[in-house]
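Budget justification aside, the reviewers requested a transparent look at the raw inputs and outputs of the sequence design task funded under Objective 1. We therefore reproduce one unedited record. The lines immediately below are the structure tokens for a 111-residue chain.
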């Protein structure tokens, strides 16, 4: 079971490396906004349709810059955004800018 879970995480990491085109990191979360970086201004955002997996990103952009995700399939119109849960801003999933998920902004705790 652990091997399957690890393969899934590697798949997600490769998927986001290809689709996001940034060096970002996935994180395992127990709660939204869990710490994931040496930058204390970053936190883990839960991704849709995943169980306990999120993406590490900057926590404090203005909520007004987010648009809701497409409600039928949890996708975003802009290719430079990804659908995440951000309950501080909205009770529905929002399209979050991938530029705020860059590891240059939110360096890994492991570095």
């Amino acid at each position: 079971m652990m091997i399957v879970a690890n393969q899934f995480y590697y798949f997600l990491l490769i998927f986001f490396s290809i689709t996001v085109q940034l060096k970002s990191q996935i994180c395992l979360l127990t709660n939204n906004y869990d710490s994931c970086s040496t930058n204390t201004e970053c936190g883990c955002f839960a991704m849709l349709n995943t169980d306990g997996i999120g993406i590490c990103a900057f926590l404090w952009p203005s909520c007004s810059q987010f648009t809701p995700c497409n409600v039928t399939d949890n996708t975003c119109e802009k290719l430079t955004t990804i659908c995440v849960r951000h309950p501080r801003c909205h009770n529905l999933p929002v399209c979050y800018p991938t530029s705020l998920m860059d590891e240059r902004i939110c360096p890994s705790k492991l570095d």
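The chain has a mean pLDDT of 80. The first strand starts at residue 26 and ends at 28. Computational costs for records of this kind are itemized in the attached budget.
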